[in-house]
Design goal:
alpha/beta; Immunoglobulin-like; Spore Coat Polysaccharide Biosynthesis Protein SpsA, Chain A; 3-stranded mixed beta sheet; 5 helices; 14 strands
């Protein structure tokens, strides 16, 4: 028969052994291997531009859902046999793309890359980022409209300015027109033409010298008549007036004051006409 004191000792030792086993089991990590696949999803535009910050990417696998901006990289548990069907989604600029991904037990430990092409084209602008082609077209149209409006505004401003100036100067314009009709040209032809004479030859009236078969005074008269309403020919004697009259019958003639000499005498005579 076992004594009671020994029985107590045995029970105590067994209890201590059980506590020690429990503590050891808690400190020891037992490895558990679960089949899994690393799934990586990337979103691209239709022209191959990465939409790193402009697309919402998500993955749904048998109740396991994950979402991120631009891309998703996550580990999906898979059954040890058979397969699991997942659905990948990407959304950007009002357009979306999706793809079905089937993960099999044979892909255990591997990385499956999935690329989703969103039907939106665009380009990266420095300092702005990715801009869709549709937005670029809208921006271009807006810029063209602004330029057209600026041009129209400048044209209208120029027209308004011309009209305003025209209103301001219209009374003067009528006066100036009236004054222009009163402009009179004066041809001074009373000199002795000393610098025109050739040594040892008879005296020649410079005004009657022919250029291109026309007397010089006729050429001067034709040019002056284009900008005046009347022409006066000032001469120093009656003989000259009579010699010029057949050449230029439409002009008025004046003979200078015999008390004065030089161009001032001719101007004084023309003023008195």
């Amino acid at each position: 028969m076992v004594r009671p004191q020994y029985l107590v000792v045995m029970v105590t030792l067994m209890a201590l052994l059980g506590i020690a086993l429990v503590l050891h089991a808690q400190q020891t990590q037992l490895p558990i291997y679960v089949p899994a696949v690393n799934v990586s999803i990337t979103a691209l535009s239709a022209n191959g531009m990465p939409l790193a910050k402009y697309a919402i990417v998500s993955l749904s696998c048998a109740g396991y859902n994950v979402s991120n901006i631009g891309s998703v990289s996550t580990v999906i548990p898979i059954p040890s046999t058979g397969s699991i069907t997942c659905r990948a989604y990407a959304y950007s600029f009002g357009m979306y793309s999706n793809k079905t991904v089937v993960l099999t037990a044979g892909e255990n430990g591997e990385t499956v890359s999935v690329t989703l092409v969103i039907p939106v084209s665009g380009y990266y602008m420095p300092g702005i980022g990715f801009v869709p082609v549709g937005t670029l077209i809208v921006i271009t149209i807006v810029i063209i409209i602004i330029i057209i409006l600026i041009i129209i505004g400048l044209i209208e401003y120029a027209r308004w300015r011309r009209e305003r100036l025209a209103r301001l100067i219209r009374p003067l314009s009528r006066i100036n027109t009236w004054l222009l009709r009163m402009i009179c040209g004066i041809i001074l032809s009373g000199g002795s033409s000393r610098r025109f004479q050739a040594s040892g030859e008879p005296w020649v009236d410079k005004a009657l010298y022919r250029v291109n078969n026309e007397p010089m005074i006729r050429l001067v008269y034709n040019a002056l008549s284009q900008v005046t309403d009347g022409i006066i020919i000032a001469v120093n004697n009656m003989d000259r007036a009579l010699s010029y009259k057949p050449i230029i019958p439409g002009a008025d003639y004046v003979i200078d004051d015999e008390r004065l000499t030089g161009p001032l005498a001719y101007l004084l005579g023309a003023k008195q006409v």
